[in-house]
C-alpha cells in the first residue's frame, strides 16, 4: 500500500480558506479539492467569469505540476455552477481549451450557492506521471 500524500499549499495559489487539503495523492491518483477563480493578491473571486475560468486553469496546472502530473493526465472532474443555463457554455469552452482532445469525464451540477458568492467551482482527479516536485 502506498502512503497518502497531502498538499496544503501550492505556490501561486491563494492560501486555503479553511481546514482542507488542496490535493491528496494515493496510489498514483491525485484528488484535487474544488478550484475557484481566486485572485492571488486578494483571495477573492476574479471580477469576470472569463478571468475566474482562466485562474481555475492556472491553479489546476500549478497543482498538477506540484504532484508530477499535467492537464493531459486529468481523468475525471465535477463542476458546480450556480446557473446552469448561463454558465454551462463558458464551462464547456473552458474544458475545450484546457484539455483539447484529452477531455476527462465530467459531471456538472447546479447548486444554490458557493463560497464567497462565487458561481463556478471545479474539482478534479488526475494520474501522477512523474515524481512530484520537491
Name the descriptors:
2 helices; 134 residues; alpha+beta; 27% strand; globular; 25% helix; 6-stranded mixed β-sheet
Structural commentary:
With 134 residues, the chain is of the alpha+beta class. It has two helices and six strands. A six-stranded mixed β-sheet has the order 1-2-3-6-4-5, covered by helices on one side. It is globular and about 40 Å long. The model has no long low-confidence stretch (mean pLDDT 94).
TL;DR?
This protein is of the alpha+beta class and about 130 residues long. The chain has two helices and six strands; from the N terminus they run βββαβαββ.
Task: Annotate the secondary structure layout.
Elements: E1 5-7, E2 23-26, E3 29-35, H1 49-66, E4 74-81, H2 84-99, E5 105-110, E6 120-127
Parallel strand pairs: 4-5
Antiparallel strand pairs: 1-2, 2-3, 3-6, 4-6
Mean pLDDT, all residues: 94
Percent in strands:
25-35%
DSSP helix fraction: 25-40%
Q: Indicate the radius of gyration in whole angstroms.
A: 14 Å
| Tally of DSSP β-strands | 6
Largest sheet composition: 6 strands, mixed
Order of helices and strands: EEEHEHEE
- Briefly note the structural class of the backbone: alpha+beta
Approximate shape: globular
Contiguous low-pLDDT stretches (5 residues minimum) are none
Question: How many helices does DSSP assign?
Answer: 2
* Strands side by side in the biggest sheet: 1-2-3-6-4-5
Distance between the termini: 22 Å
